[in-house]
Amino acid sequence: DPIASWRGSILRSRVRAPPSKPSGLEARYFLLLLNRSIFQDEHGEELAREVRAALHSGAALLLVHEVDEERDGCDFDTFFSITPADLLDSGIFYQMASALHAGT
Q1: How far is CA 12 from the centre of its chain?
Q2: In angstroms, what CA-CA distances link 46 with 14, 23, 32, 43, 70?
Q3: Distance between CA 2 and CA 77 in Å, rounded?
Q4: Which of 2, 19, 41, 59 is the right S-S partner for 30, CB 3.0 to 4.6 Å?
């Protein structure tokens, strides 16, 4: 059973391995919704800690970029000025982010 919980801009999900895998193994994913408020609101430092922990654990980071300004979207370049320096240095944005458009 997938277990998912929303917290601010995060969806964390833990999915059990398929039956063909040895028992107890889990694939881990960390879905991060990128918007103009990320790392900026009262939960910003907590979010940064959770992202650091996910990266440290080897979880697959999935980036979704909100582009609709009415839904707190912004240009991707914005993230380079609002993301903590250590996360930028870790290469958090080396992978492609999927754009989230209105109606999707």
Answers
A1: 8
A2: 19, 32, 13, 5, 25
A3: 33
A4: 59
CB 34 within 8 A of CB 64: yes
Nearest partner of 95 among 68, 59, 67, judged by Cα:
59
Contact 69, 47 (CB under 8 A): no
Q: Is the dihedral of CA 101, 70, 76, 79 positive or negative?
A: negative
What does each of the 104 residues of the chain score in pLDDT, given as a tens digit?
Answer: 233 333 333 444 443 444 454 445 454 888 999 999 999 978 899 999 999 988 888 888 899 999 999 888 999 999 999 999 999 999 999 888 888 877 65
- Print burial letters for 63-81: b (CB count within 10 Å at least 16), e (below 16): bbbbbeeeeebbeeeebee
pTM listed for this prediction? 0.70
